[in-house]
Design a protein that fits this description.
The complex is a heterodimer of chains A (250) and B (132). Chain A is α+β, with helices and mostly antiparallel strands and 250 residues long. Chain A is built from 9 helices and 7 strands, in the order E-E-H-E-E-E-E-E-H-H-H-H-H-H-H-H. Chain A has 2 domains: 5-106, Beta-grasp domain (Ubiquitin-like (UB roll)); 109-242, Orthogonal Bundle (Fumarate Reductase Iron-sulfur Protein, Chain B, domain 2). Chain A is 32% helix and 15% strand. Helix content of chain B is 70%, strand content 3%. In chain B, strands 1-2 form a two-stranded antiparallel ribbon. Classes of the chains: A alpha+beta (250), B mainly alpha (132).
Chain lengths: 250, 132
């Protein structure tokens, strides 16, 4: 069975920090196989038309999360975006809301710091744990947060978030979701520590529930849902503290 | 090789024109003006009621029965339905997921629950108002 070849025009944003004052677009005509994803088309450009093009990718199978880009204005994982679903002319830009390092490569330092800030690891009040101790988890306990573990840090959610676009102090969808993943984990006892960060000015209350993060998430993690659930948690904890009830499962 | 990251400008006044999602969101948030109006409207109605004057109350009711006001209230009702009630009920399972045993309750259960509660509360208010 032969596969159809279609010429597509790729308009790719270029930016060379050593030469360019601002980004600009360069067009490439790429003979695309209909089975290709956009990442294949970009690799074709790199391999056959222009070796200077800079972009990130690694696994080509929706695991590494490094090939997130804007495809016709939509934050997309380019290894998951098939050319057969797109028109003949496609505009490819680096993820919105991040500084451009070069061409399609963005600077991710800010979100890396934010991911670290929310303490995304199991915290125990009884540290250091006794040797040979296992913290058990039932399937039901796992199912409470399993969906949230699917995040691959592609940062499409940050590119879709208008709040992050306007306010870089906002912790943002992926980092907040990661925090919620640990808050929901029965083995964790750090929820009240995390809430100090999450319920602060730049935490969950900066989210105005546009919901774009969940719509673009290639792994269906639903960050918007996680953030709304944390708002409920934050409000409950606030009133517990007001009424002198010691909160959280720990 | 020097680093000189380029920061794309974001307009603080027209950012919501970027895509359809943002426009729908802004339309949802604009209903806050209607909320403000109805808050003011209710306070005015209560103030008139508090005067204990049947004449003033009747004239207030009459003022609401002209075509302009009826159309305004109808448009406001539709606006609330499409940009508040329907979207928020649809989003409710996100904020309040319910897990029974090992699995999450289907979203439709929570959404239908909200509509049922809405009908019951509305029926109660209509009953209080003597409509049914």
């Amino acid at each position: 069975m032969s596969t159809r070849i279609r010429d597509m025009e790729l308009e790719i944003m270029r930016y060379d920090p050593e030469k360019d004052e601002a980004p600009w677009f360069q067009s490439y005509t790429v003979p695309c196989n209909e089975d290709w994803v956009i990442l294949d088309a970009i690799n074709y450009v790199k391999d056959n038309l222009d070796t200077t093009l800079a972009f990130r990718w690694s696994c080509h199978m929706m695991v590494c999360g490094s090939c997130g880009m804007m495809v016709n204005g939509e934050p997309s994982l380019t290894c998951k975006t098939f050319v057969r679903d797109l028109p003949d002319k496609v505009r490819i830009e680096p993820l919105e809301n991040f500084p451009i390092e070069r061409d399609l490569v963005v600077v991710l330092d800010d979100v890396m710091q934010k991911l670290h800030q929310v303490q995304p690891y199991i915290m125990r009040k009884d540290d250091p744990p006794a040797e040979d101790v296992e913290y058990n988890q039932t399937r039901g306990q796992l199912m409470k947060f399993k969906q949230l573990t699917m995040c691959i840090n592609c940062m499409c959610c940050y590119a879709a978030c208008p709040q992050y676009a306007l306010n870089k102090d906002f912790i943002g969808p992926a980092a907040l979701t990661l925090a919620h993943r640990y808050n929901l984990d029965n083995r964790d006892q750090g929820k009240s520590d995390r809430l100090n960060i999450l319920a602060d000015h730049d935490g969950v209350w900066d989210c105005s529930f546009v919901g774009a993060c969940s719509e673009v998430c290639p792994k269906h993690v639903d960050p918007a849902a996680a953030i709304q659930q944390m708002k409920v948690d934050g409000a409950v904890e606030f009133w517990k503290q007001k009424m002198g009830i010691v909160g959280d499962k720990s | 090789m020097s680093r000189r990251p380029y920061i794309r400008p974001v307009s603080k006044t027209t950012w919501y024109m970027r895509n359809k999602r943002y426009k729908v969101y802004v339309l949802r948030e604009l209903s806050s003006f209607l909320v403000a109006f109805y808050t003011f409207f209710t306070i005015c109605a209560l103030a008139i009621l508090a005067t204990d004057s049947a004449e003033k109350w009747d004239s207030f009711l009459a003022s609401q029965q002209n075509t302009g006001m009826v159309v305004f209230h109808a448009v406001a009702l539709l606006y609330f339905l499409f940009f508040q009630t329907f979207p928020w009920f649809k989003l409710a399972p996100k904020a309040m997921p319910v897990q029974v045993g090992e699995n999450k309750l289907p979203d439709s259960f929570i959404i239908i629950g909200h509509y049922v509660a809405w009908v019951i509360v509305s029926a109660f208010i209509f009953w209080l108002a003597g409509v049914i």
